[in-house]
Design a protein that fits this description.
With 191 residues, the chain is α+β, with helices and mostly antiparallel strands. The chain is built from six helices and six strands; from the N terminus they run αββαααββαββα. It is globular. The relative contact order is 0.14.
Length: 191
């Protein structure tokens, strides 16, 4: 029996490191106008909620500035993934302040943050980026094509062609486009 629901089929879950990068990028919601990283307490709360620091960790204004710069750099890089361009400037600038080192991870070497606390937690976000590059999931992380959304998502389609974070955003964009075409094709009212 065919599925006749209007909902999108369930997608396989993204790997944990991909989920971390997407969640960090989505710590600002452009559509709702909310931002989890407006204060140092908010930054610590977000990092603690994602098991990157202990809840009583202290963050400085410089940590908050760096977290926001890292998030902005990731957002620009994920837009570039969607647009098939490359914009690494913001991510590169933030990464320059988050040194990593090679260390043993089980039976293979891996990257880990040099610093502890909030900078170390932000470094773990960078490690997640590198893990996504290493397992070829990096180019599947994108920003929704809907201008009013800009939500980061994981494109699990076989051909990596998904343009919107969810069915609703795509439907709204297609409806707007359809209405604009109909309006342009409609005869002008007689005067």
């Amino acid at each position: 029996m065919a599925d006749t629901s209007d909902e999108e089929p369930a997608r396989p879950p993204a790997p944990a490191h991909v989920e971390l990068v997407i969640a960090f990028t989505n710590s600002i919601d452009h559509e709702l106008g909310t931002d989890d990283l407006t204060t140092t307490d908010g930054l610590v709360r977000w990092l603690a909620d994602h098991d990157l620091v202990r809840p009583r960790t202290r963050a400085s204004a410089a940590d908050l500035r760096l977290a926001r710069a890292l998030r902005d750099g990731l957002h620009a890089a994920l837009v570039a993934n969607h647009d098939r361009t490359s914009d690494w400037r913001g991510l590169d600038a933030a990464a320059a302040e988050l040194p990593l080192r090679v260390a043993g991870r089980g039976d293979r070497p891996g990257l880990e943050p040099v610093r502890a606390g909030v900078p170390g937690a932000l470094g773990r976000v960078l490690v997640a980026v590198q893990d996504a590059v290493a397992d070829d999931t990096w180019h599947r992380m994108k920003i929704c094509a809907a201008d009013d959304c800009r939500w980061a998502y994981f494109d699990s389609t076989k051909n990596r062609s998904r343009a919107w974070c969810e069915w609703g955003c795509g439907n709204k964009a297609k409806t707007r486009s359809y209405r604009a075409r109909r309006k342009a094709a409609a005869p002008s009212p007689a005067r």
